[in-house]
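Ppx/GppA phosphatase family protein
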Amino acid sequence: MFAAVDLGSNSFRLHIGKHENDVIRVIKSARDPIRLAAGLDKNGNLTEQAQKVALESLTRFRAILQEYSLDSVRVVATNTLRVAKNAQAFLPELEQAIGYPVEIISGEEEGRLIYMGVAGVLAQPDEERMVIDIGGGSTEVIRGRGGDIRHVESFGIGTVNQSLAFFSDGIISEDAFRRAVLSARSHVEDAVSLFSFDRTIKVYGSSGTMRAIADTIARNNMGDGTVTPQSVDELKQRLIDFGHVSRIELSGMKPDRASVIMGGLAVLIGFMKEFGIDRITPVEAGLRMGVMWDLQLRATQRDRRELSVDDFCRRFQVDVVRAKNVASTALGFFQLLKPGNEAYGKYLLWSAQLHEIGLIVSHSGYHKHSAYMIAHGDMPGFTTREQRLMSNLILGQKGNLRKISEMLADVDFAKSVLALRLAVMFMHSHITLVEDQVKVKMRSRIDIDIRRDCVQEHPSISFWFQKEQEWWAGIGVEFAVKVSG
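Tokens:
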């Protein structure tokens, strides 16, 4: 069983699901409409009250998770925690409350996971489609075919921020809607051409806001009962006629949704106008379902992160043979170092494959360019934390170690860094790692034992070892080399 927890800008949500017969069946759901985005103060920080409500919600979710025997749990946070200035400081408290790591994912990763969730439910491998997900703080638009994503964009506009910006006093007017719709159109107008959209493409709406709007339209007999330009305009006019949030009386519109529905509707109208969309079909799937599908794929060794690494290698013209040799050597050294935890193995492998992507920027300081690109690039499947870890590994592949000295307190991370540095040295010296050719240990100091014939055949390795002794000495670690045999 898998669990997905979505820390959204409008609501915190939880799904627990089980993979059966090529579908994921949801067996438990929970929702807390905490309106996190409304808890940002004028300086962009989450208020103490907003933090308190968030922690209380996650404490409740933790109790639910503990009732199930779960194979994997993934907790993802979206737009509000992406933009909150005090998010990083608040993160440890969130993790303590839920009992699992919390990943603040990019808008692009959010879009990818949303599409995975929708594609998994639809199970139509050849369908050309677009998915629109209007969240509390951002809106994701994804163009794809079947399970393949063609393009994804995340726009920093959603139900909560639009409602606060244009309907904060509860008054619903024609002018407020006009300005809110224009605002929505301004966010997306420059991106429309990126999606290769035409009217033959099926459009799905995956968010709770979209389903709430569709349900309200159907229950109140607006237009033909589906989400079309005519029916959303009629819903808009009905809301304007009510004049105030407190006076809304529409079947299907829950009271806790009414306060933000205007912002979501304005975004929907604006996007439909810009793309020229004739009809949107709501679908009961999205981010949480996508997270569970991602966990299922990882469990079956079909890891999306592998594809991201391959894509980066192609995009930045990596010498694949050279990169794979370094990766193989790095993993060989990592095993010789006998890590206490194998968890770093995958990140070391991927980091080694990507360690030279910065060469496309400059040969000088390429490791710094590589590290920056990994830390800030769009890498579907990877969390921000994973990219930061790989970035530090790549930054530590050569040169002084003070730049990552704090992270070296983690012994297995230090062994990963040493393994990558040794692999890069061996690559420069044209040495292939052979069994019994070299021994390496890392305890209070680093001990290298290398065969004499190897040093004689590849004399430049002595130079690299000398430099390495200097670098490790710079952080107070002895690097001892013994030539034997």
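The two ends are 54 Å apart (CA to CA).
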